[in-house]
Amino acid sequence: MQLYQLSKENGKNITQFKSNFIMSRIINTEALASIGCMYLEENGVIGYHQAVVPQLLLIIEGEGYVRNEQEQYYQVQPGNVVFWEKDEWHETKTDKGLTGIVIESEQLNPAAFMPLK
To answer: Its domain of life (predicted)?
Structure first.
């Protein structure tokens, strides 16, 4: 498991088309990717299981805890990104609720765009 951080400071100012915003890149994929949004209610859990393909979990709201085989939980909150390799055992849980975007693909390299936390 690797923990990354989304941040405005690592983004790029976009001015094309009379724009004025900052874009922080997350990932590029050449392989097919599945992208979804997960909603964990109070005391929600994504049970302990193996990742079928490499997975990124972007925390966008709420807070919770993640772990891998080591059974040590790490707290996550908005702006945190968790990366699990294919076949890596992992679990996500929350006491108060958590919303996250999940990106799954055979070829993910989050280190190309985001700094480690």
So the answer is: Bacteria
